[in-house]
């Protein structure tokens, strides 16, 4: 009997060691594969479509109510009004999560490099995005193709423009000029030689003011849209 028990114990220990060995060899690669699949689904395949009616901020938030939460969190953290954040995204990416500048053409017909590294909802450039990640201690899952992070980036960048350049949050045109040209370019007034950029900044301001007027008529809808929220504690 003792020999049989000893054999069973040794057999179990051997099986346990075998599984431990397999886990060491296959466990981490499988974990990496699962995380990669999750990231692909989270940030690519499941990215929401652009809103059906981007001209009306109320309709945008009715279609994507969580976007209101993201914009409101950014406003509370950094100070940029919700309407201004959405106006930036409207003109930067048309609410397309994976937007990039079109490629240049080599010899007029071969797709070549892109003119900038702008990417995502907010069209954040690589250097500015790295600065944002370093400044806020963000990790791997903070990506430009996620509206939450894109709006937080817009708020963070505008907060720097407000602090360093003295631009008020109530001036979307000036905030956008600093966003488009960079804070250094804004300080040098590089935009004065770019009438297209100045015209674009004026359109951003017009849309921001229009969005703001629209939001005043419907914001309460999105302050209490989750099942656990109830008025007046969610406003």
UniProtKB/TrEMBL annotation:
Occurrences of domain Transglycosylase SLT (ranges): 47-218
Annotated SUPFAM superfamilies: Lysozyme-like (SSF53955)
Record InterPro entries: Lysozyme-like_dom_sf (IPR023346), SLT_4 (IPR045795)
UniProt superkingdom: Bacteria
Pfam families: SLT_4
Protein name from the UniProt record: Lysozyme-like domain containing protein
Origin species: Marinobacter flavimaris
């Amino acid at each position: 009997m003792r020999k049989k028990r000893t054999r069973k114990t040794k057999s179990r220990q051997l099986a346990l060691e075998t599984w431990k060995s397999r886990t060491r060899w296959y466990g981490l690669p499988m974990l990496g594969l699962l995380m990669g699949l999750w990231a692909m689904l989270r940030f690519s395949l499941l990215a929401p479509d652009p809103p059906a009616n981007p001209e009306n901020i109320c309709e945008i938030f009715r279609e994507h109510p969580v976007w209101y939460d993201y914009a409101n969190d950014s406003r509370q953290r950094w100070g940029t009004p919700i309407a201004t954040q959405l106006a930036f995204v409207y003109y930067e990416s048309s609410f397309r999560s994976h937007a990039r500048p079109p490629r240049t053409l080599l010899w007029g017909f071969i797709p070549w490099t892109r003119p900038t590294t702008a990417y995502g909802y907010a069209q954040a450039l690589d250097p500015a995005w790295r600065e944002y990640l370093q400044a806020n201690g963000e990790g791997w899952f903070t990506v430009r193709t996620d509206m939450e992070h894109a709006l937080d980036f817009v708020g963070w960048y505008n907060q720097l423009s407000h602090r360093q350049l003295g631009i008020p949050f109530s001036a979307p045109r000036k905030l956008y000029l600093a966003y488009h040209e960079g804070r250094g370019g804004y300080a040098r007034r590089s935009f004065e030689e770019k009438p297209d950029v100045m015209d674009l900044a004026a359109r951003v301001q017009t849309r921001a003011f229009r969005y703001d007027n629209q939001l005043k008529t419907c914001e309460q809808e999105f302050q209490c849209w989750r099942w656990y929220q109830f008025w007046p504690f969610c406003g």
